[in-house]
């Protein structure tokens, strides 16, 4: 750009320019102001472009240490760039469109101090000088839900997994006691971060999501497979905190007391026999150490990535509860190899196939097994609570179909009830569905896909015939050896939807 383009920024042509010495002189104590009031005043800062003080042009946008630009000058700069075609301006000769360039977004600079996304404090107000003086609200230790009540609430939504629910209830209870007290007789309580192992479909993510909903705390769920070391293509490690801030509605205090669940954590295992830098494995584990322990993280507000045009805020992760989960394939072989080390000839020897039929062998995992899998010791040390979920069997899958408040069977019964049709499942049919799910080895995730398959024809035909009053799903229908039982309405019972037609 030429000097002519910035002629409007000439300090001598600005009527509001004042001498810096005069501004400094105005801060000298006088008879009407006490020395205590002057000590609280913020030092005057000057715009780098128009040299006006912040007392006239408002808060400055920090571009670099010791360098700030006022809102008006920054907006004029973007307006000038738009005239050259950078922002899709009037210059039709330019083919460059900044809106199509990655990691660059244009904002109305007035939104940074006006109507734009703001960080909220615990009282729901935008953070500022007035809110900084307000003490942060503390969690009342008397209102923390005890472990037995947490587990009882989880029992309404999650079938089985009693040991996992007990471990999580105690860990969450101790964590929020730590948040409420901070210290106890000058003894600092460490964080209760958790590492949860379990086969796919055993309910790891569902447990965490249900727990966060019952406790009414913000929750961020992220996939470890997308995380990479800083400077490489992929999500930065700090992006997990940015997701939690968004889940908390940009409320910093609420965000700093939330839960972050990192799924597929086993994908961060250290690669064996790798000759190149492991930017998505061991390096990510090392980068997460401070995050798990507690550190100040600078995250963007209202955006997923940092850039010069997006405001940022600082989040302290000291009171954020981290829960990591993963299926850890091949971990059972590592555990079996450790348990079979004592196998030898003699009367005290163990059979080498002793643990082959143990479906819950992951519950015997130790720190040594995790190190053998590829997790670094420093990372494991910051996840002190390690437990595993149980493998789902046929009876547990049948209970999952029936018992939870939002059970799959209840959902389909409600759907057909809206068509004034009663839906029933025979016990043998539920067991047949559970067996099919076990064959697919998808855990509870396979239940809905199986039900969708045989319910498709039923839900397609029912709206066509107003005489259908009841449908009974049989085992033969699930095994594709017959059809469901269709019950016709009794005489004189005409549904409202038929009468309306």
Automatic annotation (TrEMBL):
This is ATP-dependent Clp protease ATP-binding subunit ClpX. One of its GO terms (cellular component) is HslUV protease complex. GO terms for molecular function: ATP binding; ATP hydrolysis activity; ATP-dependent protein folding chaperone; peptidase activity; unfolded protein binding. Residues 30-43 have a biased composition (Basic and acidic residues). Residues 190-413 form the AAA+ ATPase domain. Residues 392-487 form the Clp ATPase C-terminal domain. It comes from Pseudobutyrivibrio xylanivorans. One of its GO terms (biological process) is cell division. Residues 1-43 are annotated as: Disordered. Keywords: ATP-binding, Chaperone, Hydrolase, Nucleotide-binding, Protease, Zinc. InterPro entries: AAA+_ATPase, ATP-dep_Clp_protease_ClpX, ATPase_AAA_core, Clp_ATPase_C, Clp_protease_ATP-bd_su_ClpX, P-loop_NTPase.
């Amino acid at each position: 750009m030429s000097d002519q383009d910035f002629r409007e920024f000439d300090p001598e042509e600005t009527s509001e320019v004042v001498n810096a010495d005069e501004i400094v002189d105005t801060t000298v104590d006088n008879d009407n102001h006490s020395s205590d009031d002057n000590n609280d005043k913020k030092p005057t800062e000057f715009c780098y472009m128009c040299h006006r003080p912040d007392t006239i042009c408002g808060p400055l946008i920090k571009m670099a240490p010791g360098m700030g630009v006022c809102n008006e000058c920054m907006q004029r700069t973007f307006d000038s760039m738009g005239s050259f075609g950078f922002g899709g301006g009037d210059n039709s000769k330019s083919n460059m469109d900044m809106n199509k360039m990655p990691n660059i977004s244009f904002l109305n600079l007035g939104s940074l101090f006006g109507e734009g996304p703001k960080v909220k404090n615990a009282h729901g107000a935008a953070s500022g000088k007035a809110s900084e003086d307000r003490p942060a609200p503390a969690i009342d230790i008397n209102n923390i839900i005890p472990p037995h009540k947490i587990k009882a609430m989880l029992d309404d939504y999650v079938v089985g997994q009693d040991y996992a629910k007990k471990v999580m209830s105690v860990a969450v209870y101790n964590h929020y006691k730590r948040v409420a007290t901070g210290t106890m007789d000058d003894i600092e309580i460490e964080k209760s971060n958790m590492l949860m192992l379990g086969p796919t479909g055993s309910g790891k993510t569902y447990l965490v999501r249900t727990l966060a909903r019952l406790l009414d705390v913000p929750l961020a769920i992220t996939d470890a497979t997308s995380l990479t070391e800083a400077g490489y293509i992929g999500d930065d490690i700090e992006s997990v905190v940015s997701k939690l801030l968004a889940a908390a509605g940009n409320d910093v205090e609420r965000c700093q007391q939330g839960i972050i669940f990192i799924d597929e954590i086993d994908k961060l295992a250290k690669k064996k026999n790798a000759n190149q830098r492991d930017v998505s494995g061991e390096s990510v584990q090392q980068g997460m150490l401070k995050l798990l322990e507690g550190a100040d993280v600078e995250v963007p507000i209202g955006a997923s990535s940092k850039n010069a045009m997006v405001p940022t805020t600082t989040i302290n992760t000291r009171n954020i509860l981290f829960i990591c989960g993963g299926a850890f394939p091949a971990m059972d072989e590592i555990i079996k190899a450790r348990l079979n080390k004592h196998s030898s000839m003699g009367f005290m020897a163990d059979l080498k196939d002793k643990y082959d039929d143990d479906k819950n062998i992951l519950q015997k995992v130790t720190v040594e097994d995790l190190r053998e899998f590829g997790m670094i010791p420093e990372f494991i040390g910051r996840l002190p609570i390690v437990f595993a979920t149980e493998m789902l069997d046929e009876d547990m899958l049948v209970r999952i179909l029936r018992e939870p408040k939002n059970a799959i069977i209840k959902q389909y019964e409600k759907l057909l009830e809206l068509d004034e049709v009663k839906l029933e499942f025979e016990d043998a049919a539920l067991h047949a569905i559970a067996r099919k799910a076990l064959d697919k080895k998808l855990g509870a995730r396979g239940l809905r896909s199986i039900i969708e398959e045989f319910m498709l024809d039923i839900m397609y035909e029912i709206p066509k015939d107003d005489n259908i009053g009841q449908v009974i799903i049989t085992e033969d229908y699930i095994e594709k050896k017959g059809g469901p039982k269709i019950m016709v309405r009794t005489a004189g019972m005409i549904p409202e939807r038929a009468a309306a037609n």
